Amino acid sequence: MGKQATKPWLETLTLSKLHKLAVLVGSPCSGTKSTRLEGIRQALKNAPGSTQIPQHHEVSLLSIDMGIRNLAFAHIKAPLKPGNGRSTYPQYGTPVLEAWHRISVSQSPSINDKMVSVDHDPTGRHNSQIKAKTKVAKESFEPVDYAGHAHSLVQLLLHDYKPTQILIERQRFRSGGQSAVQEWTIRVGVFEGMIYAVLRTLLEQGNVDLEVNPMLPPRVNRLWLQGRAPADLKAEKKLSGRETKKAKIDIVGALLESSRDAKTTLQLGASSKAISEEFVSVWKKEKSSGSRSSAGIGKLDDLADCLLQGLAWVEWQNNRMRLNALGEKAFDLGVD
Q1: Fewest CB atoms within 10 Å of the CB: 44, 73, 83, 261?
Q2: What pLDDT, in 10s, does the model give residues 70-127?
Q3: CA distance 334 to 94
Q4: Angle at 309 between CA 306 and CA 313, to 5 degrees
């Protein structure tokens, strides 16, 4: 049991192979070799089917891309299939996108109203027309108001989707190349903390049965973008922030287009088909124009991020279960 838990064969891997493995299981890719080894081992301990984690027959996953004016979330379900004669380890089946929304937390009296106004309009055109015709009260960034927003949002999400897992995009304080941290990123960070506080309170009171996990964008990006850089970019060139956004939008657009194929890696639920079709329509227009506008990229970016974040979690869990079952034979890590 001890050797199986520590997986001594990991010690023989080079830093390059440990990096590839860390990308596959969603563990830290930086630091010393011992740090990376510990990260991989900890990730494997948290895999579904471990003795520490209760096992659900289906995951109901709520993936949140943080924001205030543009908060996006995806509700994804995936069945946990047990091992069979050909596979001795469990795996999550094809994820189903059940719901996909982008909302403005700060400008509408009802979270439900926000979801309706943006649901089938990822570009924001309809929402802009509403704002032009309606006098919107000045946004308040007072903590007392955002505490109310956080509580209302969490209660609605828990009631409507009944998640077993909640993923929250981890915020970092960006300066945008300026000497000081941008105030807007601090506000989003404060709101992030309030959402955690509401969820923690509910967990401590025993009112919910779920797990809450932070998701670091660099780890998600590495899973989706390593080896998937656009053909017109050199492999050794690091993608800029704008290029990263475009690449992720392209990945989501392609996933949605292939969702009807027999071998699809993503299925669409009835409630997500309309917004998915709108996403693909806007994506194709932006792509065919040859020069994508910042507004177009921005409106699709939030939706793309929350979906890829949720799908990354599912893939990490599958890779962890595979690695636990097959050990060093689980993946071909190539040669250094």
Answers
A1: 261
A2: 999 999 999 999 876 566 789 999 999 999 999 998 765 455 554 544 454 555 544 4
A3: 27
A4: 140
Q: Give the Cα separation of 193 and 102 in Å (integer).
A: 20
The answer to whether residues 246 and 199 touch, using CB atoms and an 8 Å cutoff, is no
Number of residues that this document lists for the chain: 336
C-alpha–C-alpha distance, residues 149 and 170, integer Å = 19
Q: What is the pTM of this model?
A: 0.86
Query: Of 257, 264, 296, 260, whose CA–CA distance to 280 is shortest?
Result: 257
CA atoms within 13 A on the CB side of 318: 18
Q: HEC states along 40-79?
A: HHHHHHCCCCCCCCCCCCEEEEEEEECCCCCEEEEEEEEE
Task: Please give the helix or strand (H or E) that residue 311 lies within, else none.
Answer: helix 294-326
**Whole-angstrom distance, CA of residue 9 vs CA of residue 90:** 22
Domains of the chain: 55-314 (3.30.420.10)
